[in-house]
DNA sequence: CATAAAGGTTGACGTAACGTGAATGTCAAC
DNA sequence: GTTGACATTCACGTTACGTCAACCTTTATG
């Protein structure tokens, strides 16, 4: 089956301009050009376009898609995990925004009378994560962790005390992990303490606790190398163990 | 308290370029310019910037924000509801994407072996809603409902039969609503039938059912005039009643 | 068969919300 | 007095196309 440009465009739900553009940037070339200069696409191109649109929907920019598609050695799973994390964060942010508007609409029907505190709350969290993502590493290198933490605490609207408590919890988790690991049992006393601490830690940074979210995060830990590197630091297999402990813990919660 | 451009920028977490740009497009003017041409902002401007950022976070474009901020008669609540709906849809889409990636990561670890059907599934729904939003009204005017429905059905990957079944359900809900309303009791037999039908209807258009989502939608119905207009068509207060019935129904589910 | 409508082509400019220089002026501090 | 941080105004770059314009080719129709 062969397609002209607009046939393929209709099939895939994009504009023909889009296909010409993809041709231009060497993302998707037609299989051949006919005698009158028309672009003709075949099944292979249809499949490739599907892949492209798949990534585009994940909000991967075209430059990256080109790389993903052209280099077979490109680490696709890593790219996916990366975008997965972005999406999850984005959703969390959306949830918060929706909640905020909910309040505005439902409780103040039609009037925008949120106080400044509330107004800022919604996007401060967002700012802090964005800043961390973009500049976190750089800033940490330049000014050390303290500056970043303080500014993060400030942005989050947390007191420095809360923020430090959160950090302390994070460290306790790291300390407890190898000890719990030695029990070899994710449902052991120590392992469950670990999971409980982890939940407590979560409540500092997440707007609301849910079992699904907790499980999801645990899975992410295992899937994402950056986390496994972090939690396996003390003991190899620690991340996996933490995940198992969390799963047991979550399942136990009534 | 007065701020130079970079002080304000830091305070609000934006770049100074952004503030200059907002000045340029008359969105946020400094309170005064000092003798050497520096922009100086006061408390009023800080507040205004907060408002601006609030809307910007809702992904309202700056042109619209200018209108919202400059015309006190601009219907703010309507604008909010509009954006609320957009956000909710966006989140639903995100959920779907996350689910898809979940599958990819978890089940095929590292390998992208989704079949074409799955690959398209994730963004076909998105396309159809976007098309509906942008062109739905126009197309409906031009070609009548049938064309739109068929094309929607096609995009959704639904059979025409399924789509029509869904439409039939929608109509049944509209018919049942006044009858159930007359019982005056959201937990009455008829009202619960109504809610059950509504759930069934939902399963056609939503990727997965959840109590929260169902409740959320019911709340949206009441909050959004377009829905109240629709469900109050048969009987005044119908929307509210439908919401109550759904809440009872959802609570009853195990 | 002529002609119109539909669909194809290549430029090339427009968009939104800034980022990123360049060239230059100003202020605070050592 | 100089240095470095911070301010100013151009002005061009960015992304992923949308939208003409000017022109050519294929298909449908009276």
TrEMBL record, chains A, B:
- One Pfam match, given by its short name, reads MerR_1
Q: Where is the HTH merR-type domain?
A: 1-71
Q: Which SMART domains match?
A: HTH_MERR (SM00422)
State whether keyword Lipoprotein applies. Answer: no
Q: Which InterPro entries match?
A: DNA-bd_dom_put_sf, MerR-type_HTH_dom, MerR_fam, TipA-like_antibiotic-bd, TipAS_dom
Q: Which keywords does the record carry? A: Activator, DNA-binding, Transcription, Transcription regulation
Give the source's domain of life in one word: Bacteria
Q: What is this protein called?
A: MerR family transcriptional regulator
Organism listed in the record: Ureibacillus aquaedulcis
